[in-house]
Write a structure and sequence with these properties.
Elements: H1 7-13, H2 43-59, H3 67-85, H4 92-104, H5 109-113
Length: about 140
């Protein structure tokens, strides 16, 4: 089962087509200055929140509906850091849960590879005009 790409990524890749859109609700993106939930009082969880929110906003993948899951990720991070600082042993379930939360936000190398990004192409690249995203409807002979 493959995951659907966010519409923003399809637009960047030049593969967004109205005929492929589903009647789904576009979730509202998170703006600047997102505060952590009031119940989050762990220092390490708060530090992780303030570290991750700008990263996810820069990727343009963070939505308001994701904030509770992000809070759970940060809370799990805080619990792990506390245990490690106290020289306690972590269970496999705790590590697994943390890794699962991280992969949901494409914060692991494997999950990051599944999220297509912009290619690092210099702006003065003369071959950039042949990229799919620069064609408009009817110009690409390969689309038929």
């Amino acid at each position: 089962m493959s995951r659907r790409k966010p519409r923003e990524l399809k637009i960047l890749e030049g593969s967004d087509q109205p005929s492929r859109r589903f009647n789904c609700v576009e979730m509202e993106r998170v703006g600047d200055g997102v505060d952590p939930p009031s119940w989050m009082d762990d220092q390490f969880a708060l530090e992780e929140w303030h570290r991750l929110v700008p990263l996810l906003q820069a990727q343009k993948t963070l939505r308001k509906a994701h904030l509770s899951m992000l809070a759970m990720l940060c809370q799990q991070h805080g619990l792990i850091v506390k245990k490690l600082k106290g020289r306690e042993t972590l269970s496999a379930a705790e590590w697994s849960q943390y890794r699962l939360y991280c992969s949901e936000f494409a914060l692991t190398p494997t999950s990051m590879a599944r999220v297509p990004g912009e290619a690092d192409v210099p702006a003065d690249n003369p071959y950039l005009i042949h990229s799919r995203r620069h064609f408009t409807k009817g110009q690409n002979d390969l689309d038929g």
